[in-house]
């Protein structure tokens, strides 16, 4: 029997190394396949998809803002993955981040809250010679000290823009609350106070409205709430927002694109931010937040649970549905008549594809709206680079300033075309019966 076994071993012995080599090759091939799929390496680069109406303004913009029609090229090895773009933005913000010098302003609100924003003067003169201020609203829980904000501000300053950056209420470290509330998904009070301050302090300045992610929702809602909010506003740019919190809440519980995991991570961040103000929220007599609410907060694993137990109560919403309905810009954005650029990325893991029907439909119907959808970029990533290392400035930083420069020159140099574009907008409003909330 032993002889047979030895014979069998002698028979199959030479084949065993070959079998192991084949298994190793198969394992390597599998790993490479997974890497190629995860990094999306087979995806080709392309210009943004643009939805717009043919107007004098849009034709002018495509001539003077080539980045809207030029191929966006992310870093070759990892830039085609929306997850890595998003993760790198979240971890690092930007590379070689500058440190622009600004002055912090404090604004007392009617309910006792203290809004703050940082003001950065321009470095040099704007190409039009005009005084122009960018009023910027950052993403969820962000402020002027975030790396991506500092990079964008520095770039804008060097192009001749003054920048005012809102610090979301409760987001600044070591800044105590003076009223029992924090920023919410769509509260425009602090942003409106910052804009009013800029208009009063700089009577000659024109405004460019910029919002990132949650900030995009806030600025679009602000402009659409009252027509007077659009006075002296040249244009608005919104990047990577979701437009409707009510529609987004269902998609944020799904596992495709790991959205449920991102929900958990963002919820954990919000939980820590709220708990850092626990004593302030509990100690004030007018607070709607109690120990029971904070106890529910400890066990929350999603933004929806946090919004239901804490955030909606800052403004006395009776239900989560009412909170999401009233604070989403989707009900106000159609009232915006100034040039409006909406930017999203197809591989943004936080924004479900179904939400992009909102800006797409808006751009199809309103002549002042352009919707730019990139193939890559993730959530607020949009890194550019050759192979591995990204450039300090992102596609997002550059396209916002380039679009804004084009609008500024349009307003200054093309008054007849401007009137033609406004007539086109007025005709649209009359034909559709759209009324503006005054």
How is this fold's topology laid out?
Blueprint: H1 2-12, H2 15-39, E1 49-51, H3 56-64, H4 82-92, E2 103-108, E3 114-120, E4 132-137, H5 147-158, E5 162-167, H6 189-201, E6 206-212, H7 214-225, E7 233-239, H8 245-251, H9 259-275, H10 278-283, H11 291-298, H12 303-309, H13 320-327, E8 340-345, H14 357-365, E9 369-374, H15 395-413, H16 415-432
Parallel strand pairs: 4-5, 4-6, 6-7, 7-8, 8-9
Antiparallel strand pairs: 1-9, 2-3, 3-5
Largest sheet: 9 strands, mixed
Stretches where pLDDT is under 50 for at least 5 consecutive residues are: 29-34
How much of the sequence is in beta strands? 5-15%
pLDDT average, as an integer?
A: 89
Tally of separate helices: 16
Give the overall silhouette: globular
Measured between the Cα atoms of the first and last residue, the distance is 98 Å
